[in-house]
Amino acid sequence: MRVLVAEDERMLADSVTEGLRHLGMAVDVCYDGDAALERVMVNRYDVVLLDRDLPKVHGDEVCRRIAEGDGETRVLMLTAAAGIRDRVDGLGLGADDYLTKPFAFAELVARVHALARRARPALPPVLDRAGVELDPAKRFASRDGRPLSLSPKEFAVLEVLLRAEGRAVSAEELLEKAWDEHADPFTNTVRVTVMTLRKKLGPPPVIHTVSGAGYRLGT
User: Can you name one GO molecular function term for this protein (predicted)?
Assistant: First the structure.
C-alpha cells in the first residue's frame, strides 16, 4: 500500500509515518500543500492523509486537485475542526473520509485499510493463492496452514504478488508499491527481499522469476 502523509505538524506527521511504515506500508511525508501537490503528480498513492490546514496551498485545494485526478486515490482528511459543517464541507471537496484530531492511531490504520480497499478492485479480505494466505488487516500470513514470520517489507511484497492474481509483477512495480520515494531504483533490495521471502515460504517454490517481466506467485 502506498500512502502520502501531508501534515504540517511535523511531530505528528513523522510519528504517523513511522507507525505506518512499521506496518509494512510504503509511506511518503510532506509538510505543506505545495509539496503534497508535487508528490501526487509524480506518484500514484492508494491513500493520502491530508491535513486540511496545510500552509502554502490549503488542504481544501489539494483535496480538490486530487479528486479531479485519476479517481483512484482516496483522501482521508485530518483536521482539528470537529463541527458537522466542517465535516460536510470536507467531504464535499472530494475527501473520502474525515478524522478529527486528536485521534487514536489504531482508528487511523483501520480507516486507511478501509479506504485502500476502495482504491482497488474488490478482492476478498483474505488473499489466498497456491496455499499461501495473507490477511492484510490482521497482519497475518501462512503457507499450507504454517504461520510465516515476515518482515514488513516481505509482507508488503507478498501482498503485492497475491493481489496480482497470477500476473507477473516487475521489480519496478514492487519498488513503487512496497517502498517509499527514497528507495534507490538501482538497488538490489527487491531481489534480496524476494530471495528471503522465498526461503521463508519454503519448498516447493511458489514465487517464480519470469524472464523480462519480474516475479509471479503461483504453482
Answer: DNA binding
Query: Can you tell me which residue has the cell 505506518?
Result: 20
> Which of the four pLDDT bands, split at 50, 70 and 90, describes residue 84?
low
Dist CA 72 CA 49 (whole Å): 14
Tally of CA atoms within 13 A in the half-sphere of 191 that contains its CB? 6
Per-residue confidence (pLDDT) for residue 9, from 0 to 100: 95
Q: Which of 114, 103, 87, 140 is nearest to 15 (CA)?
A: 103
Whole-structure pTM value: 0.65
User: Contact at 8 Å (CB) between 47 and 76?
Assistant: yes
Q: Is the pLDDT of residue 114 over 90?
A: no
Query: Do you find a cis peptide bond into 125, omega within 30 degrees of 0?
Result: no
Under a CB-based contact definition with an 8 Å cutoff, are residues 63 and 95 in contact?
yes
Q: Alpha-carbon torsion 129, 132, 133, 136, what sign?
A: negative
Q: Which amino acid is at 179?
A: W
Question: Distance (Å, rounded) from C-alpha 43 to C-alpha 29?
Answer: 12
Contact indicator for 104, 111 with CB cutoff of 8 Å: no
Partnered with residue 208 across adjacent β-strands are: 216
- 168, 194 contact by CB (below 8 A): no
The arithmetic mean of pLDDT across residues 49-69, rounded, is 92
- Please state the φ and ψ torsions of residue 122, each to the nearest 5 degrees: -60, 130
